[in-house]
């Protein structure tokens, strides 16, 4: 909806492109693109912060690779698959795009993955959850970097069932991502001896969730599985508190970001279980990155923003290692290199495109437990990459079981 | 337990109650739109943005200046209303007499501008506004636990709706406002300052949106997009009620809240389109709307 900002972003992108064309060097720039939600529901999750993270990575790398300048193109996909895909195509054809990051919103990511395959451009999907990106919709050039619906369900649902939350009812966002998330969680719950009592599918962006929540309460289930994200997740949890539903049911966030928790406040979010790939207050390396990021964005980075930083650096390292930007050679290099940085340790990119890495099951702290600003999560469990992301399913043709 | 079509009565009553709360918001928002359209002929697309602005005004009030909920109920609509009057003075005024489409485009632009600024300053994730201490907790109605705050929303909204209706339909000031719509030059000839009247009307309509925003702040997450999703539904409500009809806006707002509440029990997936299905039907049968005069 935010046309003013879009115009500005387009202008910046145009300036960046003009700059890259006017560069006197004979060698063209290495071009990294970022197509993401800059103005909508997910704009705080990646958005401008993601752009900043990518630029930090480029600067940390020295601004050049193979003696060529690194330039960054940015645009807003407005949560529209056609907008994302056509911009990706345009950049590949006209701007010499070498790598693409972005795609919060599974629908947009799936559309852009198809372009990645057609144009042979490595595509790091950062903010999308849908695990179909590495199954039915997989390509040789897609890397699903931060999390997917399988890993989220394996983290949160496994933990809660193990703690005795055996009966589940889902509040599901009525689109591809919500359904995939609910199915993934339902499978995990059943596999661990729990029971799924039902689900109510709420339209995306519903103004009021209380009606749906009363239905969840009437089911008698012990756990309220929130298979939604962004504003829908926050509003649902806020209403669940207001109606006292959190007293009889344990809420489980199947996808929540630290910015959501910040917006809700600990009073509302306390006790919530969630799964994250990265938390700013984990160790010295994460805190060091977070500190630099905070100085620019005045918020702690989400797992997506940290992932965008890591993906950019690892891509540039791969380009350096094979001394070319040739997509096939870079992809081969990427799939044969361990990822060890502030984002994760011992991560690797599998044949189907999943970046397998450890995930953290967290519990949101109570206001009393929280000692300083953004001190929000208490670590419950670390789950290994293989356990979190599960085995290769065989649904992706280039990655047989 | 007694059941209707296999659904327990208690569940239906609970959903109707929640529908009434949502209907109260619809009524208050569509009321402001109806006032602005009925008296000025302006289709105010910025209504959702002013609603969000009202919420943010309350939020900034409590965070920066320690202004609590109760003063915010007065101060936030006042501040936002003044901004509305400024916009009317600077821009909207120049479009009177032109096709209503121009006013629509201008207010749409204002909406994008305001929402963009809010997002730039506060981010997209939204923030929580605390429920006032006096209205904490819930009451047991027998068939459901109704949070006290939601009950207050119904009471406050009905009072505001009745007050506005009374002001416009039953007082001398209201008579002048309606006269300005009918024949502005004649009214001006009687010595009434019509341009000022119009500025006040727009400010008043906008203040109603901001008041709804303050009332909504403790129940939903305060975010820049909170208005844009609501405003389309509210426009449908106004069309169903009859463009510009004050009573129509109030009655259809409450009614559609109830119908939407029932839809959420019977077929939740359709709950966000049921209003538009009804709108299409009403337009077919009564193009002027339920309470419209053509």
Task: Describe, in plain words, how this protein is organized in 3D.
The complex is a heterodimer of chains A (401) and B (294). Chain A is α/β, with parallel strands linked by helices and 401 residues long. Chain A is built from 15 helices and 15 strands. Chain A has helices at residues 3-22, 47-61, 81-94, 106-119, 149-162, 176-191, 210-218, 230-242, 245-248, 258-264, 266-269, 284-297, 303-322, 327-335, 385-389, and strands at residues 30-36, 64-65, 68-76, 97-102, 123-125, 142-144, 167-173, 195-202, 223-227, 250-253, 273-276, 348-349, 355-356, 359-364, 377-383. In chain A, helix 2 (47-61) packs parallel to helix 13 and helix 13 (303-322) crosses helix 14. The longest helix of chain A has 20 residues, at 3-22. The N and C termini of chain A lie far apart (43 Å). Mean pLDDT of chain A is 90; it is low at 17-24. Chain B is mostly helical and 294 residues long. Chain B has one domain: ABC transporter involved in vitamin B12 uptake, BtuC. In chain B, 70% of the residues lie in helices and 3% in strands. Chain B contains eleven helices and four strands. Chain B has helices at 9-40, 47-64, 69-90, 100-122, 148-170, 172-182, 184-189, 194-216, 226-241, 246-266, 274-285; strands at 3-4, 7-8, 138-140, 145-147. Chain B has a two-stranded antiparallel ribbon with strand order 1-2. A two-stranded antiparallel sheet of chain B has the order 3-4. In chain B, strand 1 (3-4) and strand 2 (7-8) form a beta hairpin. In chain B, helix 1 (9-40) packs parallel to helix 5, helix 1 (9-40) packs across helix 9 and helix 1 packs antiparallel against helix 10 (246-266). Chain B is globular. The interface between A and B is large, with 47 and 44 residues.
């Amino acid at each position: 909806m935010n046309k003013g900002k879009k115009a500005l972003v387009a202008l910046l992108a145009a300036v960046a492109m003009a700059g890259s064309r006017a560069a006197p060097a004979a060698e063209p720039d290495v071009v990294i693109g970022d197509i993401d939600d800059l103005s909508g529901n997910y704009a705080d999750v990646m958005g401008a912060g993601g752009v900043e993270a990518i630029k930090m990575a480029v600067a940390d790398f020295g601004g050049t690779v193979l003696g060529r300048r690194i330039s960054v193109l940015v645009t807003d996909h407005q949560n529209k698959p056609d907008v994302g895909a056509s911009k990706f195509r345009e950049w590949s054809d006209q701007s010499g795009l070498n790598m693409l990051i972005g795609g919060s919103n599974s629908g947009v990511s799936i559309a852009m993955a198809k372009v990645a395959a057609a144009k042979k451009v490595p595509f790091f999907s950062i903010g999308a959850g849908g695990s179909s990106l590495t199954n039915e919709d997989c390509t040789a050039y897609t890397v699903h970097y931060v999390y997917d619906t399988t890993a989220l369900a394996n983290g949160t649902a496994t933990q809660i069932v193990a703690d005795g939350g055996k009966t589940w009812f889902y509040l599901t966002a009525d689109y591809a991502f919500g359904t995939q998330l609910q199915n993934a969680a339902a499978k995990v719950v059943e596999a661990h001896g729990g029971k799924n009592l039902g689900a109510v599918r709420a339209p995306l962006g519903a103004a009021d969730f209380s009606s749906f929540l009363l239905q969840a309460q009437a089911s008698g289930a012990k756990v309220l599985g929130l298979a939604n994200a962004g504003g829908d997740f926050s509003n649902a949890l806020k209403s669940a508190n207001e109606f006292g539903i959190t007293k009889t049911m344990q809420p489980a966030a199947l996808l929540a970001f630290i910015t959501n928790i910040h917006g809700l406040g600990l009073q509302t979010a306390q006790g919530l279980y969630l799964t994250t790939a990265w938390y700013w207050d984990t160790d010295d390396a994460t805190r060091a990155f977070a500190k630099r990021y905070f100085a620019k964005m005045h918020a702690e980075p989400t797992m997506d923003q940290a992932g965008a930083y890591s993906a950019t650096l690892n891509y540039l390292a791969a380009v350096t290692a094979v001394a070319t930007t040739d997509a096939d050679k870079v992809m081969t290099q990427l799939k044969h290199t361990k990822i060890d940085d502030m984002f994760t340790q011992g991560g690797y990119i599998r044949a189907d495109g999943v970046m397998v890495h450890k995930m953290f099951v967290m519990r949101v702290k109570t206001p009393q437990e929280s000692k300083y600003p953004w001190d929000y999560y208490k670590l419950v469990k670390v789950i290994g990459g293989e356990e979190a992301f599960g085995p290769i399913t065989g649904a992706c043709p280039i990655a047989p079981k | 337990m007694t059941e209707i079509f296999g659904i327990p009565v208690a569940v239906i009553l609970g959903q109707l109650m929640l529908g009434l709360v949502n209907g109260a918001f619809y009524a208050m928002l569509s009321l402001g739109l109806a006032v602005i359209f009925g008296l000025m002929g302006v289709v105010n697309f910025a209504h959702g943005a002013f609603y969000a602005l009202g919420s943010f005004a309350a939020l900034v009030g409590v965070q920066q200046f320690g202004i609590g909920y109760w003063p915010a109920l007065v101060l936030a609509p006042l501040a936002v209303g003044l901004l509305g009057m400024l916009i009317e003075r600077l821009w909207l005024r120049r479009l009177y007499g032109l096709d209503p489409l121009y006013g629509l485009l201008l207010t749409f632009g204002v909406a994008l501008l305001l929402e963009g600024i809010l997002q730039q300053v506060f981010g997209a994730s939204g923030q929580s506004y605390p429920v006032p201490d006096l209205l904490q907790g819930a009451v047991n109605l027998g068939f459901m636990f109704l949070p006290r705050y939601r009950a207050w929303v119904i009471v406050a909204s009905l009072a505001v709706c009745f007050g506005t209706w009374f002001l416009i339909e039953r007082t001398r000031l209201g008579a002048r406002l309606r006269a300005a719509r009918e024949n502005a030059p004649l009214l001006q000839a009687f010595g009434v300052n019509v341009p000022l009247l119009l500025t006040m009307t727009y400010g008043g309509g906008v203040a109603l949106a901001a008041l709804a925003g303050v009332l909504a702040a403790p129940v939903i997450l305060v975010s820049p997009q909170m208005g844009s999703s609501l405003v389309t539904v509210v426009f449908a409500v106004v069309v169903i009620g009859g463009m510009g009809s004050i009573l129509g806006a109030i009655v259809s707002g409450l009614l559609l809240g109830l119908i939407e509440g029932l839809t959420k029990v019977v077929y939740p997936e359709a709950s966000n389109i049921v209003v538009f299905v009804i709108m299409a039907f009403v337009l077919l049968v009564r193009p002027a709307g339920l309470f419209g005069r053509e």
